[in-house]
């Protein structure tokens, strides 16, 4: 009976992961259901004491859970309780997933390989769909890129989160190559072709986050893996190709060329102080200025997560009144959002948690896992990633996935 129950729960675990991946691309509701089920599956297993012991002894799992603590407590002094509750719903995986995924009995390296392949397949499907939308109306999208509009993506048309998903897929592929769990020439060349496609797609999409991840994280890691595998000639040739890739993309892809021009134009605007919320990077700077304003005035405990928008609006009304309400976002920096919402202790805790993997033995050995957490830290500098459903999912689930791959017995 115990074996049968454990088998059923293992199957449910993988079914939940399928729901998570499908929900990320196609339905927020399905994503929420998948998260609820995978948490329930973890809590309802018969290994409660063992799971609790593993969780308590793992300071990183406890740290991720604590990221929920200060935003939750800030509800005590948030006037807008409905806004606070909405934020807490998005952040709930931070509280419960680390315990639910502290470990999963029966999971092997083969299973983790299957999870990685499933994510790669889902993201490949999403990227092809996105590229087809461009091909169907390429003239229109070439024009829209002049006003910072990009080609449609799945994941509720969130091109930033989708480009992050592509980077994660490439990092998973690199892990599979290190594990050498992909057998057969057909699968080998198919995956390599998909990775080449991902590189092309990131340039076609032109999302800055995806390109940052590609050139600052993925390329150095690929070169490192080639050098350590003794493929120095291939690494040198690859480096030369990478250096020429932006030039090739600039001349062959109108979307990439226009995107570069837009970025340079936007940069000129914020250097001259011409910030009115009409351009993405300039608007990003305004959100940070508003967040810094709120944090300075409420550095001890913050204003409460329910009232961040209300308080940042006060700054906008004085310093940037021409920015429409629809363009006034949360401070697009995770440290500023944490500080303005929950105060200095939340900032210190967040800093400790996101830097902790760099000091953990098993994480330091896992170069792809370190690359992932480095990428997330870069994104945290200009996004409040763990304050929306997709961002919380990408950070929490894949951090825990990499944590599972770090297990010594795997």
Structure description:
With 410 residues, the protein is mainly α. The protein has a domain at 107-274. The protein starts with a helix and ends in a 5-residue tail after the last helix. α9 (159-179) runs parallel beside α20 (389-405). It has 20 helices and no strands. Helix content is 75%, strand content 0%. The radius of gyration is 22 Å and the shape is globular. The model has no long low-confidence stretch (mean pLDDT 92).
**Average pLDDT reading:** 92
Radius of gyration using CA atoms only? 22 Å
Low-confidence stretches: none
Count of helix runs: 20
Biggest sheet layout: none
The rounded distance between the terminal residues' Cα atoms is 26 Å
Element string (H = helix, E = strand) = HHHHHHHHHHHHHHHHHHHH
Strand tally: 0
Which range best describes the helical content: under 10%, 10-25%, 25-40%, 40-55%, 55-70% or over 70%? over 70%
Q: Strand portion, in percent?
A: under 5%
Secondary-structure content class: mainly alpha
Overall morphology: globular
SSE order and pairing:
Layout: H1 2-26, H2 28-43, H3 48-57, H4 59-66, H5 69-73, H6 81-100, H7 109-136, H8 138-144, H9 159-179, H10 185-205, H11 208-228, H12 232-252, H13 254-271, H14 280-297, H15 308-319, H16 334-342, H17 344-355, H18 361-365, H19 367-380, H20 389-405
Helix pairs in contact: 1-2, 1-7, 2-6, 4-6, 6-20, 7-9, 9-10, 9-11, 9-19, 9-20, 11-12, 11-19, 12-13, 13-14, 14-15, 14-16, 16-17, 19-20
Q: Characteristics of this structure?
A:
410 residues; 0% strand; 20 helices; mainly alpha; globular
């Amino acid at each position: 009976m115990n074996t049968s129950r454990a088998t059923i729960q293992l199957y449910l675990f993988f079914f939940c992961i399928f729901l998570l991946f499908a929900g990320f691309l196609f339905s927020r509701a399905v994503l929420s259901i998948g998260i609820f089920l995978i948490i329930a599956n973890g809590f309802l297993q018969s290994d409660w004491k063992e799971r609790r012991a593993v969780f308590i002894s793992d300071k990183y799992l406890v740290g991720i859970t604590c990221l929920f603590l200060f935003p939750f407590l800030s509800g005590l002094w948030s006037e807008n309780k409905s806004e606070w509750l909405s934020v807490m719903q998005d952040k709930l995986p931070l509280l419960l997933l680390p315990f639910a995924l502290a470990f999963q009995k029966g999971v092997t390296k083969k299973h983790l390989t299957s999870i990685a392949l499933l994510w790669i397949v889902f993201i490949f499907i999403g990227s092809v769909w996105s590229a087809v939308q461009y091909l169907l109306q390429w003239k229109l999208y070439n024009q829209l890129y002049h006003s910072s509009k990009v080609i449609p993506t799945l994941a509720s048309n969130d091109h930033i989160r989708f480009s992050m998903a592509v980077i994660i897929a490439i990092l998973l592929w690199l892990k599979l190559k290190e594990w050498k769990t992909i057998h057969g020439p057909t699968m080998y060349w198919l995956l390599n072709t998909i990775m080449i496609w991902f590189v092309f797609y990131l340039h076609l999409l032109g999302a800055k986050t995806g390109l940052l991840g590609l050139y600052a994280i993925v390329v150095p890691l690929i070169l490192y893996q080639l050098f350590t595998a003794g493929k120095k000639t291939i690494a040198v040739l690859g480096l030369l190709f990478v250096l020429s890739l932006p030039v090739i993309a600039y001349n062959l892809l109108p979307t990439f060329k226009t995107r570069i021009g837009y970025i340079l134009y936007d940069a000129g605007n914020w250097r001259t102080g011409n910030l009115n919320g009409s351009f993405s990077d300039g608007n990003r700077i305004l959100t940070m200025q508003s967040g810094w304003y709120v944090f300075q005035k409420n550095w001890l405990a913050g204003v409460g997560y329910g009232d961040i928008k209300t308080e940042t609006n006060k700054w906008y009304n004085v310093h940037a009144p021409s920015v429409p309400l629809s363009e006034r976002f949360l401070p697009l920096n995770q440290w500023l959002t944490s500080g303005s919402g929950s105060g200095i202790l939340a900032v210190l805790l967040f800093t400790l948690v996101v830097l902790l993997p760099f000091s953990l033995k098993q994480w330091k050995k896992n170069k792809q896992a370190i690359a992932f957490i480095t990428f997330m830290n870069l994104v945290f500098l200009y996004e409040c990633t763990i304050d929306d459903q997709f961002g919380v999912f990408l950070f929490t689930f894949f951090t825990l996935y990499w944590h599972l791959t770090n297990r010594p017995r795997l």
